[in-house]
Structure to design on (770 residues):
């Protein structure tokens, strides 16, 4: 059901030829209200695609009527023609839906530099067909239409007592070819105002999508949009909604990690007893971005030396000679020296658990990443636009 | 000739069984004077190997009598036993040479966590044999003894008018298994005082070794040592010596890049018209560390979108929509939009030239890196300790 699980939403996913396979490639998600509350977070890359530049303006007033998403082209670095394509996409949807173009978010994903006349015509055709196909059962089709190199759609639903949150995501980790990676739409029928939606979304993404780092490469097109219809009539305490929203985001983040291109291990890096949460995140990210560590995990090698060498590049508070490292439950390093032998660690399962105990304070953070594999290199070098 | 090319130096390289192949694995380089000036730069990783901890103290007074180097074990994260091994290595060499242990630099390279009793005994044996074998023709043997996964030794000599600089390096890029990567010894018979040696070495390494970034992974054991014997009796103007030293360092850095494990392209990233040199370095490094760009180059794909997505993660001064990108002489991106078609770019040669024109100021910097290949993944995952 994904984005149409909550009351008040319709969606569609149609095929207009942006994908050479003929699969669905344009999705439309519409909020039928009564509330039209929206919030979004965007890539922090300064190199932003046209849909990002447009949508950043759309969400400023906290009102979002609909989201149009396309795969098969990122519409990034395509000049003013590309920006006009995004603008026309929003206008076409607004016209058909009887709303203002300034309340229509646009998302694109695919190769950077793709956004010519043919692309524009297909996207506009997709809007037309998508709006015509809107239905309260359209969530699944929509989740299929945003896939690029994803091997499967990503959907999540959280059902509360009389209220629901639904979501869909695309992205093969953070590492899809062309860098157009993660698009997420989350819907809810909870009663929220714009400030509540914005705060809840920022809090949830900070500890979920922001801590998924499969290859350190930041996209030009990443966007997470939350829409609230209020159709349940229920207003929740802020932390109850925040917790549920975070669970949905974390579920989708785990699905993205699990489908990361070429990966053979899903690595959960838990940094504990840090001096601050920022320190824990910095330490976790330094490991997630260390190619030598990631290649070792691919080779089922519990190479804790590479972990210490990675974290030694950060400014976080810890003593390199007072750090413990655990891999899949086995303490391989105690106080910066060897502990259990490597043979004790079984790294054959896909799920890999790394714990780094900084022994400084009580803060913690979890970063999700993947290993560095032959298939990663293959899929990101042999890709043809 | 390498380190024995300048007057006043002797060296040796011997085999004591640290390498399972039976190849040479301990090198000794001795300065016979009359000056005993030394300077060194070290990895900035906070996770420092025992030889780094020792050698940082040795060079503080600007006096270095000798350098002992071993391959076959990094002696990193081996506890106080490992530090004592380094200490005993310096003491044994000092005793045999009739100098103070506090003037003997020690360097180790190999797997992190390696440094047990067997390792210590072999290294001490190597010191004994190495000192006995010292000769003014020993530079080549020494350069062989420091190799690990290097496919060939790295040596450089600069001959001036009555003076000489010689050097040797080991390292398969920055990316050797176990993270024990780059060791360099440079010798000269120029007359230098300690402050001059230190200043010249820092200036030269800043624009050579510091700008070699094959995989973003910083070693625990990196060290570059400069020794000056003054045996030529010649004192050069500071810039003349600095220029020659920089040329030697750059030559060795290029050899390291060219022998980077698994690489199929040597990529020279030239960032021009930046607002500052720091900005140019930051932009170049963001590209050098972007796995998607590096995989694209492996696939001979001139994917300039990945270049813009990489530099967009920096704080450097530029407008993403006013940047030009050239690959192997072809302008593929003008003002943040597509220019020449990808078919115009021939990426089949190993030498790859990327120019990023930020169009902001007049500063520039060059970063050397390599592509991300199947062989890189293989060599860094299948490595067995």
């Amino acid at each position: 059901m994904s984005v149409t699980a909550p009351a008040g939403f319709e969606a569609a996913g149609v095929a207009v030829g942006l994908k050479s396979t003929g699969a669905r490639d344009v999705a439309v998600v519409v909020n039928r209200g009564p509330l039209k509350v929206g919030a979004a977070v965007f890539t922090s890359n300064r190199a932003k695609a046209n849909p990002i530049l447009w949508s950043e303006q759309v969400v400023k007033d906290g009102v979002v009527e609909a989201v149009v998403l396309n795969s098969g082209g990122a519409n990034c670095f395509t000049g003013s023609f590309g920006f006009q394509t995004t603008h026309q996409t929003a206008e076409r949807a607004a016209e058909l839906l009887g709303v203002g173009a300034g309340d229509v978010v646009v998302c694109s994903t695919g190769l950077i530099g793709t956004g010519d006349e043919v692309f524009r015509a297909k996207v506009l055709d997709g809007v037309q067909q998508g709006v015509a196909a809107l239905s309260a059962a359209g969530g699944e089709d929509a989740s299929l239409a945003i896939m690029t190199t994803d091997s499967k759609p990503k959907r999540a639903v959280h059902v509360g007592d009389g209220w629901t949150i639904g979501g869909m995501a695309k992205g093969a980790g953070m590492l899809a070819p062309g860098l157009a990676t993660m698009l997420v739409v989350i819907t809810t029928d909870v009663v929220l105002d714009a400030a509540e939606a914005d705060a809840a979304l920022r809090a949830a993404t900070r500890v979920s999508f922001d801590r998924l780092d499969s290859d350190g490469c930041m996209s030009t097109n990443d966007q997470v949009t939350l829409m609230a219809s209020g159709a349940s009539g229920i207003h929740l305490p802020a932390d109850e909604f925040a917790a549920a929203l975070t669970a949905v985001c974390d579920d989708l983040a785990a699905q993205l990690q699990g489908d990361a291109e070429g990966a053979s291990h899903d690595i959960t890096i838990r940094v504990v007893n840090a001096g601050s949460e920022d320190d824990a995140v910095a330490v976790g990210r330094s490991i997630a971005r260390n190619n030598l560590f990631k290649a070792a995990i691919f080779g089922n090698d519990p190479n804790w030396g590479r972990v210490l060498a990675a974290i030694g590049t950060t400014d976080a508070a810890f003593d390199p000679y007072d750090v413990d490292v655990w891999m899949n439950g086995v303490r391989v390093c105690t106080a910066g020296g060897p502990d259990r032998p490597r043979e004790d660690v079984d790294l054959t399962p896909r799920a890999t658990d790394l714990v780094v105990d900084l022994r400084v304070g009580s803060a913690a953070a979890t970063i999700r990443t993947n290993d560095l594999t032959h298939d990663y290199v293959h899929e990101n070098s042999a890709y043809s636009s």
In short: The first helix of chain A runs from residue 50 to 58. Confidence is low (pLDDT under 50) at residues 174-180 of chain A. Chain A touches chain B through 60 residues (CB under 8 Å). DSSP finds ten helices and 15 strands in chain A.
